[in-house]
Design a protein that fits this description.
By secondary structure, the chain is mainly α. It is 18% helix and 0% strand. The protein contains two helices and no strands. The longest helix is centred in the first third of the chain and has 10 residues. The protein is globular. It starts with a helix and ends in a 64-residue tail after the last helix.
């Protein structure tokens, strides 16, 4: 996996089903996440305080996080090398 990340910059795992917030955090820990830095808003459906749940549907996640939203870890002393995204569905035509 690490070699694929170095070669392509992205690895996609398809057909994972819907993961809980805790499962997403556990998977992140497998990639060496020793400490989580979460500075985002928390949605009640996120399932874990470290999950930033976005959605285009108001009841499903945070809608319109704004143009300033990003994920780079530049605030951390040891900037992280990976970011994980769990995409459950995408709009048709995307």
């Amino acid at each position: 996996i690490e070699a694929a990340m170095a070669r392509t910059g992205m690895v996609v795992f398809r057909d994972m089903g819907v993961l809980t917030g805790d499962e997403q955090v556990q998977i992140s820990m497998l990639f060496g996440a020793g400490e989580m830095h979460s500075t985002h808003g928390e949605h009640h459906k996120a399932g874990n305080e470290h999950i930033f749940r976005l959605s285009n549907q108001d009841g499903e996640g945070i809608v319109g996080p704004g143009a300033e939203w990003h994920n780079d870890g530049s605030f951390a002393v040891d900037v992280f090398s990976h970011a994980a995204y769990h995409i459950v569905s995408i709009p048709e035509g995307s």
